[in-house]
C-alpha cells in the first residue's frame, strides 16, 4: 500500500551495525604499541545516521546494542546528535561491538573488529517495525548485514516495506571481508577478497535498489565481475538504480541510465585536495553528503560535491562520526574553501565544527552558584582557626543548596574547584545540573598562571567531558603592554588546549579592579582577545553601570562570534539588592544568559558553619534561600 508523503516524518532510516570505535591517538604507531584511544560511535549505518542528522536530515537507526555502558553510549550519543533512536533495540544477552584502530602510516590503519556474537548481528525481522519503516522516505541497508540469515531477513523486510509504501531503497555495499569470515582477526582493514557467495547475495539485493553506492572494490563484489566497468554494466543489467562509484582522492562518478565503455561517462564529482589523516569513515561521510542532496531532489553534480566535501572532512581528521561536518560547516567550506590542505588545521572551520556540534545544544538560561573560591575560603578558615578540610566539607553543602533550588530543572549550574571541591564534584555529578564549571587559574594570579601545572592541556584530559573550563583573568585594556601580552598568550594557550581536548571554555574578565570601567572598557578587552582568535564559549563579566557598556559588549560579540553561548554575570560579593539592579541593567543585552554568583550567597553561611554556630541544614537553607532570591530576580528580569 503506498504511503502519503506528508505522513513520513523521517528522511532516512539506516540499518545494520553499530559499534564503539576506539581509535589510537598516537599517529604513526602499531596497534600493538598504541597507548590511548579516543572513543566514538561507529559502524557504517550509525555513522550515516549521525552524518545525515548533522546535515539537517531527519534520520533514524535500526540496530541492536548491548545492555551495558557502551550500548547506552551509542543510544545516548545518537540521540544527542539528533538521530531518532526508537529503532535501537537493547539485546540483553550480547555485548555491543567494538572496533580498535591505529594509524600506522598514511592509508595504513590496522583494525580489529571485536564482534564475536555481538549485539547488532542478532538483529532480526522482529526488530523492523512496519509502521516505523513506512514513516521514512527512505531506508538504507548495508553490506555486512546481508552476511547472516537473521540480519539479512531483517534488511529484506525493511526493503519490502519501503518498496510497498513507495519509499526509496539505498544500498551502501560497505564490504568488510573480515565480517563475512573471509579474512582473519588481524585483517580487519582488508577491503577486498573475491567471493562468489558474497557476490550472489549482494547481487540479489540490487534489483530492489534506487541508489547503490560503493568503492571500486565494492562495485566488483556486488556484481561478481573482475573489473570496474564490467561490474557497473553487470549491476545495470539487473538494476535501474542510480549508481555512485567512490574513487578515494579522485572523488566519485554518478551513473543514471546505460553504462557506456567510458568509465568517466557519468556525472563526475572531483575530490577535494586535502592532506590525509585517517581514511576510515570517509565513505559514510560521503554517503551522508550525497543523501542530503539526493533525498532533497538536488542534481547529481550538487550531491556529488557535497558528498566529496564530507568525505574530505572525514579523511583529514582522526575519527569517524564526530568529525563529520554540520550543514553550516559544509556550506562555509564550499563558499570559502580553505587555505589549509590539512583541513583539521583550519581555525575558522574548526570553530564552526566545534560550535555547531557542541555536546549540549542551546543553553538559553544559566543560573549558577559559584563555589570555586579558594583564597577567600582559606582566609575564612584561617581566621577561624579551622582546618582546611572544613572547606571541602562546606563545598558539599553548597551543592545541596544549589540542588535544592534547581530541583532537577534545566538552567541551573555550579562552579566548583578541584583543590577543595573533589567530593563536591562527585556529589554534583548526581544532581543533573545543566552546567558545571571548573576553574584553572591560580587564584589571584596576575599575570595569569594556571593552578597545579602550567601544562594545562595534560590537566584537561583528565576532566569529564562536560566540565566547562573557567578561567579568571584580571585584564584591563590600559594594562602595561608587557603584562597584556603575557596574559593574552596564556589565554590563547588555554583556548587551544580547550579545543584540542574538546571542553567548553568560559573566560572571566575582571577589569574594574585594575582601572576605570568606562562604557568601552570591557568591550575593548573582549575585542583584543577576539583579535587573537580566542573565541570562548562563554564570557563571565562584571556588572556594568552604563547601558552603553552592555550595548558595546553585545556588538563586539555579534561581530566576532555568532556562535558564542553568551555571558554570565559575576557577583564580586555585592549585596543582593545591587545584584538585582545589575540584572536589570542587562535588559539591553540579550547575550547575558544569567549569572554565576558566590560569596553573596555563601559567605555568611561559611563563617557561621565553620565556627560551629550553624549546623548543616541551617547552612544549606540559608544558601538555598539566597540563591533562590537571585534566581527569582533573574527570571523576573527576563520575564520568565
Ligand atoms: N585522499 C582523499 N582526498 C580527498 N577526498 C577523499 C580521499 N579519500 C576519500 N575521499 C573522499 O571520501 C570518499 C569516500 O572515500 P573512499 O573511496 O575511501 O570510501 P570508503 O572506502 O567507503 O571509505 P571507508 O573507509 O569509510 O570505508 C571519496 O569518494 C572522496 O569523496
Ligand atoms: O565498522 C567499521 O567498518 C569500522 C568502524 O570503526 C567505522 O566507524 C566505520 O564503520 C567506517 O565505515
TrEMBL record:
Keywords: ATP-binding, Kinase, Nucleotide-binding, Transferase
SUPFAM superfamilies for this protein: Ribokinase-like (SSF53613)
Pfam family, one: DUF2090
EC number of the protein: 2.7.1.92
InterPro entries: Aldolase_TIM, Carboh/pur_kinase_PfkB_CS, DUF2090, Myo_inos_IolC, Myo_inos_IolC-like_sf, PfkB_Carbo_kinase, PfkB_dom, Ribokinase-like
Molecular function terms, GO-annotated: 5-dehydro-2-deoxygluconokinase activity
Family, similarity comment: Belongs to the carbohydrate kinase PfkB family.
PANTHER family (UniProt xref): 5-DEHYDRO-2-DEOXYGLUCONOKINASE, HEXOKINASE FAMILY MEMBER
The protein, known as: 5-dehydro-2-deoxygluconokinase
UniProt organism field: Shinella lacus
Taxonomic lineage of the native organism: Bacteria, Pseudomonadati, Pseudomonadota, Alphaproteobacteria, Hyphomicrobiales
Amino acid at each position: 500500500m503506498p504511503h502519503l508523503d506528508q505522513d513520513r516524518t523521517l528522511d532516512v532510516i539506516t540499518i545494520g551495525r553499530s559499534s564503539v570505535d576506539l581509535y589510537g591517538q598516537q599517529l604513526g604507531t602499531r596497534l600493538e604499541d598504541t597507548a590511548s584511544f579516543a572513543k566514538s560511535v561507529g559502524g557504517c549505518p550509525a555513522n550515516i545516521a549521525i552524518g545525515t542528522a548533522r546535515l539537517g536530515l531527519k534520520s533514524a537507526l535500526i540496530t541492536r546494542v548491548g545492555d551495558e555502558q557502551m550500548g547506552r553510549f551509542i543510544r545516548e550519543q545518537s540521540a544527542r546528535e539528533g538521530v531518532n533512536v526508537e529503532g535501537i533495540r537493547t539485546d540483553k544477552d550480547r555485548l555491543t561491538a567494538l572496533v580498535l584502530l591505529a594509524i600506522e602510516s598514511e592509508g595504513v590503519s590496522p583494525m580489529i573488529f571485536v564482534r564475536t556474537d555481538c549485539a547488532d548481528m542478532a538483529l532480526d525481522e522482529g526488530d523492523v517495525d512496519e509502521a516505523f519503516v513506512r514513516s521514512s522516505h527512505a531506508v538504507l541497508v548495508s553490506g555486512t548485514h546481508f552476511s547472516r540469515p537473521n540480519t539479512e531477513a531483517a534488511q529484506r523486510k525493511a526493503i519490502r516495506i519501503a518498496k510497498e509504501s513507495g519509499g526509496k531503497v539505498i544500498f551502501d555495499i560497505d564490504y568488510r571481508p573480515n565480517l563475512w569470515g573471509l579474512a582473519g582477526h588481524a585483517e580487519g582493514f582488508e577491503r577486498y577478497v573475491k567471493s562468489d557467495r558474497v557476490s550472489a547475495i549482494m547481487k540479489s539485493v540490487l534489483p530492489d535498489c534506487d541508489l547503490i553506492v560503493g568503492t571500486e572494490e565494492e562495485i566488483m563484489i556486488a556484481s561478481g565481475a573482475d573489473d570496474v566497468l564490467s561490474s557497473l554494466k553487470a549491476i545495470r543489467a539487473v538494476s535501474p538504480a542510480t549508481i555512485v562509484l567512490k574513487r578515494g582522492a579522485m572523488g566519485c562518478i554518478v551513473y543514471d541510465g546505460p553504462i557506456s565503455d567510458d568509465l568517466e561517462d557519468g556525472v563526475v564529482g572531483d575530490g577535494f585536495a586535502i592532506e590525509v589523516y585517517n581514511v576510515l569513515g570517509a565513505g559514510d561521510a560521503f554517503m551522508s553528503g550525497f543523501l542530503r542532496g539526493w533525498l532533497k531532489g538536488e542534481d547529481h553534480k550538487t550531491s556529488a560535491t557535497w558528498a566529496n566535501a564530507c568525505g574530505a572532512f572525514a579523511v583529514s581528521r582522526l575519527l569517524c562520526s564526530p568529525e563529520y561536518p554540520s550543514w553550516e560547516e559544509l556550506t562555509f567550506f564550499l563558499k570559502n574553501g580553505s587555505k589549509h590542505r590539512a583541513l583539521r588545521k583550519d581555525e575558522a572551520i574548526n570553530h564552526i565544527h566545534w560550535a555547531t556540534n557542541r555536546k549540549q545544544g542551546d543553553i538559553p538560561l544559566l543560573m549558577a552558584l559559584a563555589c570555586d573560591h579558594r583564597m577567600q575560603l582559606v582566609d575564612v578558615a584561617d581566621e577561624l582557626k579551622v582546618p582546611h578540610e572544613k572547606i571541602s566539607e562546606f563545598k558539599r553543602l553548597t551543592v545541596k543548596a544549589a540542588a535544592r533550588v534547581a530541583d532537577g530543572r534545566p538552567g541551573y549550574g555550579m562552579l566548583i574547584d578541584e583543590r577543595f571541591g573533589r567530593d563536591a564534584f562527585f556529589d554534583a555529578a548526581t544532581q543533573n545540573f545543566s552546567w558545571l564549571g571548573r576553574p584553572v587559574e591560580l587564584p589571584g594570579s596576575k599575570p595569569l598562571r594556571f593552578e597545579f601545572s602550567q601544562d594545562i592541556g595534560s590537566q584537561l584530559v583528565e576532566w569529564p567531558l562536560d566540565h566547562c573550563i573557567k578561567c579568571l583573568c584580571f585584564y584591563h585594556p590600559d594594562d602595561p603592554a608587557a603584562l597584556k601580552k603575557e596574559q593574552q598568550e596564556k589565554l590563547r594557550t588555554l583556548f587551544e588546549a580547550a579545543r584540542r581536548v574538546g571542553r567548553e571554555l568560559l573566560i572571566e574578565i575582571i577589569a574594574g579592579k585594575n582601572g576605570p570601567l568606562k562604557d568601552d572598557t570591557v568591550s575593548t578587552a573582549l575585542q583584543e582577545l577576539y583579535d587573537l582568535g580566542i573565541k570562548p564559549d562563554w564570557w563571565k563579566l562584571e556588572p556594568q553601570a552604563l547601558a552603553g557598556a552592555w550595548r558595546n559588549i553585545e556588538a563586539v560579540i555579534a561581530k566576532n562570534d555568532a556562535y558564542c553561548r553568551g555571558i554570565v554575570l559575576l557577583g564580586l560579593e555585592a549585596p543582593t539588592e545591587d545584584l538585582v539592579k545589575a540584572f536589570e541593567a542587562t535588559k539591553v543585552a540579550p547575550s547575558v544568559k544569567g549569572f554565576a554568583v558566590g560569596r553573596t550567597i555563601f559567605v555568611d553561611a561559611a563563617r557561621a558553619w565553620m565556627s560551629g554556630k550553624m549546623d548543616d541544614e541551617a547552612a544549606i537553607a540559608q544558601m538555598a534561600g539566597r540563591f533562590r532570591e537571585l534566581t527569582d530576580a533573574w527570571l523576573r528580569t527576563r520575564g520568565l
